[in-house]
Amino acid sequence: VTFGMINSNETLQANGAFTVRFDESLVDGEIVRLLLQMSNNNHSYLDSIDIIVNAPVLNCTKVSFSNLDGEPTDRFIKGESSLMTFDITNLGHSKSFDVTNQLAINVPFLDITENKLTTEAIEAGETAQVTFQVNIHDNAPKGNILNYSLETQCGIRTALYESRVLLGYTTEDFEDDELNPNFQWSIGTGSKKWTIMEDPTATEGYCM
Known about the structure:
By secondary structure, the chain is mostly beta strands. The protein has no helices and 14 strands.
């Protein structure tokens, strides 16, 4: 961009003088420094401009379960279908592109009606919902804890949410030398702490 003579204390403006394209890999809040070189006859001047990048940041902020009638549940039931609804929130400062959401539950006794769904672009600070139908087969075990993951993708940006869900009603059989870690038992502290001991009179040789 070339200006004519600039008088002392005078400001000139050139609208649309430069086009700057920021790479999609830049993250929200990152600072990019632009260098501006100016020259006048034999004199050269260097200045800089700091620009804060606005970009989308997607995160799963809530998961809810219900049956096909929309009644809330907290688990899967053998032989029935359930709906899993995820809230996808844009925590960044820029509107996203369309968002691809892929649900994975890697067990052989269920299927997902459609495991990859797309939501429209999400404005900064807004939330979109995506709902998957999960069908539990009749041969599923009566009590289990299933790991699942949801991967969201927007352009080159991805986010992974992982958690667990109950299948049916689980029980602890107390027939081993340790408690099932999936149940997150509270065994107390200090002198009031529960411990597992060998006991030949117990069915499997252990008691608490």
